[in-house]
Structures are given as C-alpha cells and as structure tokens.
Amino acid sequence: MSKPIRSTSRQTGPATSFELLYQRLEKIPPLTIAVSAPEDETVLAALAEAAARGWILPFLIGEREKLELLLARLELNLDTFTIEDTQPGLTAMRAVELVRSGEAHLLMKGKTPTAELLRAVLNRESGLLRPVDRVSEAEDNAFASARILSHVAVVESTRYPRLMLFTDGGVNIEQPLPVLRDMLHNALELSRALDTLAPNVAALALVENVTEKLPETRLAQTLAQEADQGRFGRCVVEGPLALDVALSADSADGKDIPSKIAGRTDIFLGPNITATNFMVKALMSLGEAKGGGVVLGAAAPIVLLSRSDTPDTRLNSIALALAAVLHYNQHPDFGNSRQTRLEFE
After folding, report:
1. What is the dihedral of CA 101, 30, 36, 179, to 10 degrees?
2. What is the C-alpha separation between 60 and 43, in angstroms, rounded?
3. Does residue 36 contact residue 43 with C-beta atoms inside 8 Å?
4. Which residue, 75, 200, 239, 277, could crosslink 261 as a Cys pair with Cβ 3.0–4.6 Å?
5. Which residues, including other chains, have CB under 8 Å from residue 124's CB and lie 6 or more apart?
6. Residue 337 CA, distance from chain mean position
C-alpha cells in the first residue's frame, strides 16, 4: 500500500453547491480516470476541462487515430491525455482492468454501450464487484455477496438550500426491498462523501399513509423503521412521504404531517425508476437546475452519462465521482481499499 497523499485543507461543512465541490477538489492531487471508448467531442471536452482544473489525469482506452483527430479538431493538447490504442469491443474490459489493478481511480463511460460496460464491471472474475458482509448488515438476501449498483443523480437548484440526491432513476428497473436497501446505502455514502454526515432521507410515495394499493408505501415504511433501528448508520429516514412534504416545511404544516426533514431533505428515494428519472429530467429541463450523476456500489465509482448530457453535467459528474473516491479512501469498507489513499491534513 502506497503512502497517503495528503491534501492541504479540511472540509468545512456540507457541499451545498457544485461550486463548493469544485473548490474542494482544488485541494487534492489529480486522480487517474479510465475512459472506455471516449471518441466523443463532449466527453473529451469535459475531460480536458477537468484536467485543466487539476482534478484528473485522463487515460483514454480507444482507437488512437480517431482520438488524435478529434483532439486536434477540438484544439486540445494531446499531452494532457494518455491514450492506449484498443480495438472496439475490448475497451470496457481494459478500462475495468486499469481500475481493478489500481492504475486508475475511477471509471467513465464514453461511447461504449452501457450494457457492455456494466457486463465488464459485474464480471465475477475480472470485474469491480464490491464484496458485502450481508450477515453483519442483517440482510435477508444473504446470498447476494456483492453490493447492487445504483445511480444517484445530484441536482442543485436556486430554490432549494442544499444539493438534492435522487435515486435510482437509471439502473435498477425492479426495486424490491433488498435492492432499495442497497440503493439507500449507496446514496448515503455519496451524501457523506459530500460531507453531509447525517443525511435526511425521504422515501417517496404518492401519499403519506400506508396502503396495500400502493406497495411502495409499505416499502418506505419498512425502510424508515429499519433506519430507526440503526440499520443505515447516522441518518433520518421518513416514509412514506409525498414529494411536496419532503421539499417544504410549509407543505408538511399545511397537511398536518409531523416531519423532522421537511424542507431539509438530502436524499430522495424514488418510488420507482420512472418516477425518479422524470423528477430529475423535469428539474434539469424546466427548473434551470444544475446536475450530475454517478453509479455507485462497485469497487470504484462509475461516471455513466446520457448522450444528451451537456459538458457542464459531465463535468459535475466527474466531480461527484472524485468526491466518492476520496470517501472510498478515507473509509476502505466503502470502496476499493487497493486504491491510492488520499487524506486531508
């Protein structure tokens, strides 16, 4: 294990905006990001911006000739990038191998199909599965030895006083209780990586009362009860909770709903993948919000973006993944303990 690389500053409270997160990343040494098939102008532009800020060392796994032509067209400095000439179809496996060996700290999807990248990540022999002691977590799915992957979207709005974490609107189509538990674990870890040490979580549903006609209300109630018993560490989980109550203390008062987290929710655990996806897209498209996202649950964070994401969204996503890497290294049980250790003085 290499010696810790020390930063020059301590955190000063929760990161309530992407700008604050950017400022904190200026305090760390650059980390290597392995990018699978990055032959895309917006991907390369975001990587160049992150490298110019001193955050990353981009390691491109793809077709050298195409990459060099793209970099020249974009007038980007070739010396900023390490390029490994790799045939299409092999880039995902090679990128995962670099992260698995510790040569890279995090993984990013370029033009590689999502299914192909996730197959490489989830390979039991050569992937980035993260072992979990289900017995110590009192899980009833003890047969599942690896943490389930889930997507966490992070949204910043001028009309809300903190970053909002939404999960899972991108990976898990079916979300039974064991999957929800892992989704919550992953979102809590990202929130803590952003220095919210005891996050507030709303397990969302259409209504606040439990009804068998809406199965998600029962699941939300169960998660809240398990959180009260300490299953998820330091956090407050309330549910079922409607979105308006999670966002506004006035809404909670108007509906006579006692809530410790109304208007102060950090994590919004959606009732299903579609609803969560729609919430985030509505905020980003119509609410003039800023956003980014990262896939957690593997041994290293994964930047997995939509083709429609803007360069700013891609840059925000890289920043979130770097925050997660810092948390991985300060808390080895969270991520891959083989990673280079990073510490704040």
Report:
1. 70
2. 11
3. no
4. 200
5. none
6. 18
Question: What phi and psi, each to the nearest 5 degrees, are found at residue 269?
Answer: -90, 105
Number of residues that this document lists for the chain:
345
Pick the CATH number of 150-295 from 2.40.110.10, 3.90.226.10, 3.30.750.24, 3.40.718.10: 3.40.718.10
Which residues lie across from 85 on neighbouring strands? 62
Q: Quick one: 108 exposed, middle or buried, by C-beta within 10 A (0-12, 13-18, 19+)?
A: buried
What is the sign of the dihedral through the CA atoms of 333, 194, 100 and 122?
Answer: positive
Centre a 10 Å sphere on the Cβ of residue 171 and count the other Cβ atoms it contains.
23
* 22, amino acid identity: Y
Q: DSSP 3-state helix, strand, coil percentages of the chain (rounded to 5)?
A: 35, 20, 45
| Strand duo 106-109 + 31-36: pairing | parallel
Residue with tokens 């407050």: 236
Q: Taking the model in full, what pTM does it have?
A: 0.90
| CATH architecture type of domain 1-130+298-345 | 3-Layer(aba) Sandwich (3.40)
